[in-house]
Write a structure and sequence with these properties.
The chain is an alpha+beta fold and 180 residues long. The protein has one domain: DHBP synthase (Alpha-Beta Complex). The chain is built from 5 helices and 6 strands; from the N terminus they run H-E-E-H-E-H-E-E-H-E-H. Strands 1-2-6-3-5-4 form a 6-stranded mixed β-sheet. A hairpin with an 8-residue loop joins strand 1 and strand 2. Helix 1 packs across helix 4.
């Protein structure tokens, strides 16, 4: 296996601010998987269609929001009390954006115009300093770039077998789409 290459943080922040997808990896001791992340304010119909094509998605498109925003929108937690998930992912009930399964402010979800269910995730206060998850990373990237605090994310999967992409496959996929 070859080592995965990472962009300098300044380049990644500028790309995020400019509306590009980032591939964000967590470490081997956690899940060792990659997520595609884009600021919610930069999500367009075309970008959401692109994220749902094979080799890129797990079927779940999530939107990471601070807890205060979820409370304003009255989106309840899926598991309100004792979350048994190994990484304590703070899932809410799903939201049917197009058909109004929950009362959601379209400005928060930017231009997500596909008819799909989104799974809002609650980012923990303190961001990645309190939980090293993709959920917190998406909101922290928005904060660091001065964008509205809503990040769209989707786990990368291998289109051949459906497994979550680890470091090696994520690196290959990232290079393929960067070159193409």
């Amino acid at each position: 296996m070859t080592a995965i290459g990472f962009d300098p943080i300044e380049n990644a922040l500028q790309a995020y601010k400019d509306g590009e997808f980032l591939v964000v990896m967590d470490d081997e001791s956690r899940e060792n998987e990659g997520d595609l992340i884009i600021a919610g304010c930069h999500s367009t119909t075309e970008k959401m269609a692109w994220i749902t094509r094979p080799f890129r998605e797990s079927g779940l498109i999530c939107i990471s929001l601070p807890g205060e925003r979820l409370a304003e929108l009255e989106i309840p937690m899926m598991v309100p009390k004792k979350n048994q998930d190994r990484h304590r992912t703070a899932n809410t009930v799903s939201v049917d954006y197009k058909h109004g399964g929950q009362a959601v402010d379209p400005a928060t979800l930017a231009a997500l115009a596909l008819s799909c269910h989104l799974l809002p995730l609650r980012a923990r206060p303190g961001g990645v300093l309190t939980r090293r998850g993709h959920t917190e990373t998406a909101v922290d990237l928005c904060r660091l770039t001065g964008l509205p605090e809503a990040g769209v994310l989707c786990e990368l999967v291998n289109d051949l077998d459906g497994d979550i992409q680890g470091e090696f496959n994520t690196s290959k996929m990232s290079n393929y789409y960067q070159d193409g």
